[in-house]
TrEMBL record:
Organism whose genome encodes this protein: Micromonospora olivasterospora
A GO cellular component entry from the record: cytoplasmic side of plasma membrane
Protein name: MinD-like ATPase involved in chromosome partitioning or flagellar assembly
Keywords assigned: Cell projection, Cilium, Flagellum
Keyword Ribonucleoprotein: no
InterPro entries: P-loop_NTPase (IPR027417), ParA/MinD_ATPase (IPR050625)
Length: 412
């Protein structure tokens, strides 16, 4: 076929034409020297100062002479690239006009459907600038939760706060919770935290917390209370320190209870108020391990003076029933606000998860301000002295979250 016919818009390819096996010389270079004997010579168009150097291949295109007086209407073609024929289909190949019918453009590229995004199992991908490759909600990591809880515990509390740990039933981890709450808060704040064993019937807090550098208890403090409470500042701290025990790491102090049952008669309402007032003057947080007798003046005085009630229980029906009954009693005696703002602390005494735990969490979430769960830890199973730093990391983090929930309403 004569190459000149390929530039003729009216030319139709012969049916018998077969595309040659050798590469076809591109005819779009419209060079007059290679266009053949019958190719019309290219003539420069008069008028524009920069006429096009190449013949246009548009289908049916006929250049109109530009007016000689107004050359600005003649649009110069690109200096190096010719204009191609505008294809009818929007995706037609630009080389379709170079073949008189034998060439068929390849199908237009269709991008494959992007598969649904599946979040990676590991940390989110990071692009060059360090930003997340995909913005999505992710649960907080344990480190982030621990930092937030620790930041809450470091904040100012406005005034000294008393936390009462209570449940009329024994064996529900009141003493353990009192010690670990004081140890957790003290390890973050560094000072000003005390655990008081106010159980009038031979409490064991003094045996499980603090170093017994002396044998003094609440009984000895009350005997000298009149001489101590009149002191101020450093003198008061030094005088009171003679009756306190200290944790091994110095994070909190301990006021041990008296082991003699006859001493319970001396803990009347007025005496308990004086002791609490003295401890508020020297410490920022006072954690009180209450007794089991809800009818005693001692127990009710602590409830009335408490800033935060912590209801301790274990995932058992009898322990939960006793805690529920205590909340009802507080409503009956005019301390319903204290009960509604309480924190329920569920301690797990065994490694496995109790089937009753979910029900208890839902139930006490409707009765108290918050519910916190602390896991089982083998370091607490023996019932001996409690060392906060011997706990598993996940146990310490759980206590950190629980303690922050207790003090959250007072943080400034």
């Amino acid at each position: 076929m004569d190459p000149a016919h390929r530039l003729d818009p009216g030319h139709r390819a012969e049916p018998a034409y077969q595309q040659p096996q050798y590469p076809v010389e591109p005819s779009w270079r419209a060079d007059p020297a290679h266009s053949g004997p019958d190719a019309p010579p290219h003539r420069a168009e008069p008028g524009p100062p920069l006429p096009s150097r190449y013949a246009l291949l548009d289908r049916g295109y006929r250049p109109e002479p530009s007016p000689p007086a107004e050359p600005r209407y003649a649009e110069p073609s690109p200096p190096a690239e010719p204009r191609y024929a505008e294809p009818s289909p929007p995706v037609e190949s630009r080389y379709a006009l170079l073949d008189g019918g034998g060439y068929r453009p390849e199908p237009a590229y269709q991008p494959a459907a992007e598969p649904a995004y599946r979040p990676p199992a590991g940390p989110p991908a990071v692009v060059e600038r360090g930003y997340p490759a995909r913005i999505e909600w992710r649960p907080q990591s344990p480190d982030t939760e621990a930092e937030r809880a620790a930041g809450m515990l470091r904040r100012e509390l406005g005034s000294p706060r008393a936390l009462a740990f209570a449940n009329p039933k024994g064996g529900v981890h009141k003493t353990t919770a009192t010690v670990l709450a004081a140890a957790t808060i003290g390890s973050v704040r560094g000072r000003g935290v005390l655990a008081w064993d106010d159980n009038e019937l031979r409490g064991t807090l003094g045996l499980r917390a603090g170093s017994a550098r002396h044998a003094r208890t609440i009984r000895h403090l009350i005997a000298d209370l009149a001489h101590i409470e009149i002191r101020e500042g450093e003198e008061l701290l030094a005088s009171l320190d003679d009756y306190l025990r200290h944790a091994a790491d110095g994070s909190y102090d301990v006021l041990a209870g008296e082991e003699s049952p006859r001493f319970a008669q001396r803990l009347d309402q007025f005496t308990v108020k004086r002791v609490l007032e003295l401890l508020r003057r020297t410490h920022d947080v006072v954690c009180v391990d209450t007794g089991n007798n809800v009818e005693s003046p001692n127990w009710r005085t602590v409830m009335q003076a408490a800033d935060q009630l912590v209801v301790t229980t274990v995932p058992r029906e009898d322990a939960a029933f006793s805690a529920d009954w205590m909340l009802d009693l507080l409503h009956e005696v005019g301390m319903g606000e204290l009960a509604d703002n309480a924190v329920t602390l569920i301690s797990c005494p065994t490694p496995g998860r109790s089937p009753l735990q979910d029900d208890l969490e839902r139930h006490f979430a409707t009765r108290t301000r918050a519910v916190a769960v602390v896991p089982y830890d083998p370091a607490l199973e023996t019932g001996s002295s409690i060392d906060y730093h011997q706990l598993r990391p996940e146990t310490r983090q759980a206590w950190l979250r629980a303690a922050s929930v207790m003090l959250e309403p007072f943080a400034r």
